[in-house]
Amino acid sequence: MNLKELARTLDLSPTTVSRALGGYPEVNAETRARVVDAARRHNYRPNTRAIQLATGRSMAVGHVIPIAARHEIVNPIFADFIAGAGETYSRAGYDMVMSVVPDTDEARTYRELKSRGTVDGVIVHGPTAKDPRIALLTDIGIPFVVHGRATGAELPYRWIDVNNRRAFQRATEFLLDLGHRRIGLINGLEFMDFAIRRRTGFTDALIARGVTPDPTLMASEEMTESSGYRAARAMLDRPDPPTALIVSSMISGIGARRAAQDRGLMLGRDISVIIHDDELSYLKNGDTVPMFTATRSSVREAGRQAAEMLLHLIATPDSPPEHRLLEAELIIGQSTGPRHP
Amino acid sequence: MNLKELARTLDLSPTTVSRALGGYPEVNAETRARVVDAARRHNYRPNTRAIQLATGRSMAVGHVIPIAARHEIVNPIFADFIAGAGETYSRAGYDMVMSVVPDTDEARTYRELKSRGTVDGVIVHGPTAKDPRIALLTDIGIPFVVHGRATGAELPYRWIDVNNRRAFQRATEFLLDLGHRRIGLINGLEFMDFAIRRRTGFTDALIARGVTPDPTLMASEEMTESSGYRAARAMLDRPDPPTALIVSSMISGIGARRAAQDRGLMLGRDISVIIHDDELSYLKNGDTVPMFTATRSSVREAGRQAAEMLLHLIATPDSPPEHRLLEAELIIGQSTGPRHP
DNA sequence: GTCATAATTCGAAACGCTTTGGCTTGGTGG
DNA sequence: CCACCAAGCCAAAGCGTTTCGAATTATGAC
Question: Angle CA(A29)–CA(A30)–CA(A36) in degrees, nearest 5?
Fold first, then answer.
């Protein structure tokens, strides 16, 4: 069932039917009611492709996911972000299209997305310092919103980010307040912007309290269980092990916990651990009481908001660059305690 | 730059240009070379929407993700599956469109996907026993492939699945061989088809060796860390705790590990644990030696193959229903050992 | 040289919708 | 009674492709 057929059954012109359905004012209320009713009865849905061709908008948003040897973006955080963004898209009648491509093809993929008219805008994931995609997308002319920030980017751009620096600063201060002086940082890969900021927050807090950051107590790795384990283990095996750890993700935190337990250390008593908790749906930080003390910020909510920002940008392309900085909560759980003498 | 413009600069008709680019034989080799060259120089890409309108195919595949109170499908397994499928799509020039919708809207979403012509086919995730989507999609007439199976479905359908029954049977046998008799099962939600099959494999193996399955040693929950913890803890707190556990996922396995460690039990010595390992990219089962003994099967590979099957189905709609049953490997890790007397 | 045949190329319709501009109709004010 | 206006509707021109059928030109056989 298409427009023309529907119009014929109603004995109206396609123009009028289109307008009636589209909510345009110049159609008689009674006529509109007839049309709407018939459309429902015949289960009519306008063909998306045709609309897109006629209007020039694609009513779709793109997410390109580079697959790389180095840093795997298809991670749990990504999944929850997508779920959040997807909710917003569905409600707004937008499609979400995902391109999984080798990272060497990333630029080409964005160009194609534009030149083929596949999407009206894109979300940029996992920005690095001085991320080249910002210049690229600006150049191509696709509306985009960045999830995170890219230190050193010269051009203005829209972003939504957690205040990573502040979060890790507070976490560090919290540990310092508990008497900890040797604190390890198990960070994500530090070419990622968020990891840089976290590290800054960490060292800033230490320095502010007169503790000299010890480079050997800072690890920077992919945030997997095993790398968290490895990093924690390496630190704990030293002659002067840290008494506390700050870990950049729940998953590496679980690895760190395993390392501690391997050494017979009990979390919260023998060693303190703070993680960053993205509130992933299947990795809750405990049911009632949080198992880890954590800096908490829902990545799913970030996804929702990022999508809103993008849709808004698409609707009003000339709006001034919008930024949103989400503050992480500090949640006190069972994994921290005063320094063990 | 569009077809018409390109044709004009070449002093050819759009027809010929289209054919030259489309690889049709009836165009002079020399002309084709000119066209191809010009297309590259002008950075021409045919507009996807227009192609779709003209051909009737959308060159896109849909994944609909219901968000439900009960069972969250946006889970880590899903992310890796998507990544695998996405690779295949990109290579084949297909787009992947994802719809995140409230589960109450699922049927409507599929109908729209069809009537709006958004996709050429869909992948069905997380089938339950007697999954209603199979009848629905057959009725709607969208080509689809199911990741998993739906026991009790009356209609024929394409699927790719891990041999869950066999995998859990082998895991159980392995534990029995190690002398374990009281074995707990921490399964996923048992309205999910895969969970039913796993349970069957488990009980079949027990019965075959003359061990009567104990219903109180079987838990069925969402596969999160905390539910794994809770289930394991409940079993271990009994007066007659199991000496071994089989756990349906890495994540709940980690929860189970935590429960064991809380009780001072060391994995592989005091208690044996086997998990199912989907080979998630950020949750590797150890770096070199597997930490958990596991039944292993890459969900990413399943995604790749599912996508291939679907594209094949789209290309040749009348091909006979294809099924693929992937066998899981049994990987011996450090979490199992002979029964502790 | 002629004519059938093959090799190329082209014109135009079609895909399903939106949108511009125009046409009727009936009502209003002078 | 007429000019004018608003409301309501429609015809047709796109949007950027593909593709059918026809037209043109080149090729070869006779």
Answer: 85
